[in-house]
Amino acid sequence: MSDELKKRVFTGVLGGALLLGLIIFGGRVGMAILISILSLGMIFEFTEMTFTMPDRVEKRYLLWSLTWFVELVNLLAPQVEFGLLTVTFLCLFIYFLFSAKRYSEAEFSTHFKELAFSVFAVVYLVFLPIYFMKIYELANGMQWVLVFLLINWAGDSAAYFVGTKYGRHKLYPLISPKKSVEGGWGGIGAGVGVALISKALFFHSMPWGAVFVLPVIVGAAAQLGDFCESFFKRAFFKKDSGSILPGHGGFLDRFDGVVFSLPVMYACIRVLG
Fold first, then answer.
1. Domain with 146 in it
2. Which terminal CB of the chain, N or C, has fewer other CB atoms within 10 Å?
C-alpha cells in the first residue's frame, strides 16, 4: 500500500468515525454542528481560490457569520429556507454596496464578481448542506443519513479502486482526466450494494424498485458533483481545494459529491417513499 493510499484510508476512517459519532449521538444539535463545520471549511477553501481584493478576509468573515446565522435559525425554526436565503442575499448586497467606496470605479468589476462568488457560495456551500438536516428530520431520518453517506463513501471508494485497476475509457477527460467509465459504474454498483444491505437491516418495506433506483440516481448525482467541483478548480488553476484532509485534499474535494447529491437524496426519499 502506497503512502498516499495509507493517508487516504487513515483520514477516511478517522473522519468517518467523527461524522458518525455526531450523527448517531448528537441529535439535531450534532447535525447542526456537522453542517456548520462542513460549510465553514468549504467556504474557507472557496474564498481562498476566488477572493483577491484587499478586504478578502473581511468578506470571508462575513460569509462565516452568515453561515452561523443560517444554521442557528434553521436549527431553531426549520422550514424557513427561502426567507433565510433572501435575508442572506440582502446582507451580502448591502455590504458589497457600501464597501465599494474603498475602491476606484476600475475595481468595481472585480468587487462585483466577488459578490457573485459570495452568492454562489451561500447557495452551494451553506444552503445545500441544510438538506442533511431535512433528511435527518424525516421518518427514520438518522438511518437515511447513514445510508446516504455510505452510498457516497462506498461509491467514491469503489470508483477509485475500480478505475485504478480497470479504467480504460475516460469519462470526461477535459475536466477530470483520471476518472473512467469503468470507475463510474463501479461506484454506482457499490451504491446499489449499500442499498441492498440497508433494505435487509433498516428498511424492510422499501420497494425493490427503490432499492435500485435510489442509489443509481444519488450515485450519479454525486459523480456529477465531483465533476462540478473539478470544473471549478480548473477554472482557478487548482489541483486541490486544500490540504487539511491528508490523502483527500480539502473539504471541497471530499464533500463535493455529498453536497451536490444531498437534495437529490431528499427528493428520492420523498418521491419513492
1. 140-273
2. N
Measured CA distances, 267 to 13, 131, 134, 217 (Å): 29, 10, 10, 10
Phi then psi dihedrals of residue 224, to 5 deg: -65, -40
Which of these, 23, 51, 32, lies nearest to 142 by C-alpha position?
23
Nearest to 245 by CA among 1, 19, 60: 19
Contact 15, 250 (CB under 8 A): no
Alpha-carbon torsion (66, 72, 74, 80), positive or negative: negative
- Which grid coordinates belong to 150? 455510505
Q: Where are the beta strands (DSSP E) in 82-127?
A: none
- Which element (helix H / strand E) includes 192? helix 181-201
Q: How far apart are CA 246 and CA 240, in angstroms?
A: 11
The pTM of the full predicted model, rounded to 2 decimals, is 0.90
Same domain for 229 and 194: yes
Q: Left (φ > 0), alpha (ψ -120 to 50) or beta: where does 102 sit?
A: alpha
Dump pLDDT digits (tens) for 130-153.
999 999 999 889 999 999 999 999
* pLDDT of res. 211: 86
Count of domains observed in the chain: 2
Same domain? For 121 and 157 the reply is no
Tell me how far apart the terminal alpha carbons of the chain are, to the nearest angstrom: 42
Element holding 38 (H helix, E strand): helix 27-50
Q: Residues 182, 253: one domain? A: yes
Greatest distance between any 2 Cα atoms in the chain: 64
